[in-house]
From TrEMBL:
Keyword DNA-binding assigned: yes
Keywords: DNA-binding
Coiled coil residues, start to end: none
Domain HTH merR-type: 38-105
Signal peptide: none
Species this protein is from: Plantimonas leprariae
Name of this protein: MerR family DNA-binding transcriptional regulator
A Gene Ontology molecular function term of the record: DNA-binding transcription factor activity
Pfam family, one: MerR_1
PANTHER family according to UniProt: HTH-TYPE TRANSCRIPTIONAL REGULATOR YFMP, REDOX-CYCLING DRUG-SENSING TRANSCRIPTIONAL ACTIVATOR SOXR
Length: 158
């Protein structure tokens, strides 16, 4: 069986980026983090294809809460899972605030089930938003193609 970490990075790089594949972020592929309980900032940055600055930004926004040992940030399994969910939200077009709202539901009473219910509802809504954006982009591309064709035909007469 191929290494899931390598597979998601190769797939993402083939798509022109370095973000993990959605299957990895969803946990469909192995995401056990090598069974560790503590991760250094560089470990998570490498695993998820993000910069150290991104992780520090997420920390500043309250999305991650690493422990400190001197100047070293030590991330827990909880932080790693939250990072995975933040990146999933980002991949699906949610803002960090929206992603955080869905993630934070987990800590409420009956949170695990409620989190899935809310995610299903919000994902369906976001899908409609993205389809609307796609229609707008398609219309813009059609207008662009028409304009390019017109200008190519017009150019020789100028």
């Amino acid at each position: 069986m191929p290494n899931a970490k390598v597979a998601y990075l190769e797939e993402a790089e083939n798509e022109g980026g370095s973000q993990p594949a959605v299957e990895y972020l969803l946990g469909i592929e192995t995401v056990d983090g090598d069974g560790k309980d503590v991760y250094r900032i560089g470990d998570l940055a490498k695993e998820f294809g993000v910069t150290l600055r991104t992780l520090r930004f997420y920390e500043d926004r309250g999305l991650l809460s690493p422990q400190r040992r001197g100047t070293t940030r030590l991330y827990s399994r909880r932080d790693r899972k939250r990072l995975r969910l933040v990146l999933l939200g980002k991949a699906l077009g949610f803002s960090l605030t929206e992603a955080r709202q869905m993630i934070d539901i987990y800590s409420q009473p009956n949170g695990k089930r409620r989190q899935v219910e809310v995610a299903l509802e919000r994902f369906a809504q976001q899908r409609e938003v993205l389809l609307g954006q796609r229609r707008e982009v398609d219309r813009s591309l059609e207008a662009m193609d028409l304009s390019i064709d017109f200008l190519r035909k017009y150019l020789p007469s100028v």
